[in-house]
Amino acid sequence: MLKMCVMGVRTSWRTVADGEFFCPDCGGDRNYLRRTGRRRLTVLGVPLLSRGAAGPVLECSACRGHFGPDALDHPTTVRFSAMLRDAVHTLTLALLAAGGTSSRAVRDTAVATVRAAGFADCSEDQLLTLLAALAADTGRVTGSYDGTAAGLCAHQGMDPCGTALAIELHETLEPLAPHLAPAGREALLLQGARIALADGAYTPAEREVLSTVGSALMLRPADTHRLLAAARTPS
Fold first, then answer.
1. 21 DSSP assignment
2. InterPro entries this protein is in (predicted)?
3. Is 150 within the bounds of a domain?
4. N or C: at which end does the chain have fewer Cβ atoms within 10 angstroms?
5. d(CA 164, CA 144)
6. How far apart are alpha carbons 154 and 132 in whole angstroms?
7. What is the CATH number of the domain that holds 222?
8. How far apart are alpha carbons 161 and 169 in whole angstroms?
């Protein structure tokens, strides 16, 4: 026997924006519609009384699932990859500033690390020129230098992790940290450790930078110390 629904609540949706997000149900990047709605009491399918606002929600264009606006807090796959590349680039510059750039081993390791992170065209000269530009333009690296990449290479007295560089490390790493598994955060710190260890033991300046990196990645100080000690011990 067919039963008729005499009374109910119906939501009328309206699209107010669109974009791309990481869909939790699909597990990948998808387009979405940002929608708001009005609930109305219906009698025999006819809308009568308003029952208030609904949403806003994000509606996935693929699975049609509805999610809260906080779903946009999760970066898309493309955005996450860019964040990770930028994080490696920033910590590499900070370590070059901390340890000086006179060591060929350090420079080679730095370039290889940045290339592996996704900047395939990165060169030694590009890194050194950027470091010199940061020093000259923003004061993020202090110390005497002649404004050239070669002069920067010869200099060893740079500020290990000046206030501006420390802020930049936090600004780059902290938004990334919640989206990395613990092993991912540890791996990022260890990439920095390998750069610092390329020419021997950590210097106090390099330790300061790596401690800042660990803090920005939301690692406990004890875990940061353990990881840096393990990286120093040959396997």
1. E
2. DjlA_N (IPR007791), TerB-like (IPR029024)
3. no
4. N
5. 18
6. 12
7. 1.10.3680
8. 9
| Whether residues 94 and 169 fall in one domain | yes
Q: What is the mean pLDDT of the chain?
A: 82
Instruction: For 54-84, give the secondary structure using H, E and C.
Output: EEEEEEECCCCCEECHHHHHCCCHHHHHHHH
Find residue 56's DSSP bridge partners.
Answer: none
Supply the pLDDT for residue 163.
Answer: 66
- Do 59 and 84 fall into the same domain? no
Q: Which tokens go with 227?
A: 């990881």
Closest CA to 141 of 84, 90, 177: 90
Q: Is the pLDDT of residue 183 over 60?
A: yes
Q: Which has more confidence, 12 or 220?
A: 220
22-38 confidence digits (pLDDT tens): 999 999 999 999 998 87
Sequence-separated (6 or more) residues with CB below 8 Å from residue 18: 31, 32, 33, 34
Residues 56, 168 share a domain: no
Do 176 and 221 belong to one domain? yes
Query: Does residue 56 have a cis peptide bond before it, meaning omega lies within 30 degrees of 0?
Result: yes
CA distance 227 to 178: 19
The answer to whether residue 93 is domain-embedded is yes
